[in-house]
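The data layer described in this paper is built around a simple, fixed record for each protein. Because each token names a local backbone shape, the row as a whole describes the fold. We quote a single record here, exactly as it is kept in our systems:

***
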Amino acid sequence: MKRTLVLGASPNSSRYAYKAVSLLKRHGIETFPVGIKTGSIEGIQIINGKPIIENIHTVTLYLGYKAQQEYYDYILALNPKRVIFNPETENDELMQLLEEKNIECIEACTLVMLGTGQF
């Protein structure tokens, strides 16, 4: 089970983070959308703040570099097995911090990974 936290979740159905939550749900992956906006994605409530959720396998990022900075400690505290840097979220500084804790960093698209069975 690859419990997944989607950081940068949005209730806007045109956003890629919304589409990722939807597709993760359709693939039967337990998903935790975390964002600053309120609302839900296909019945899953968006969680505000920085909740510590146990046993997160994957964090998939939908925040740009500058917005990620305030989440460094949060992501590290989750201690995921891997972090997916979706297009336009690449961040060498965060990748280095994660790699120091032996957390796998992948520059890829969550939607493509799910669609091709690579997730």
About this structure: The CA atoms of residues 65 and 91 lie 6 Å apart.
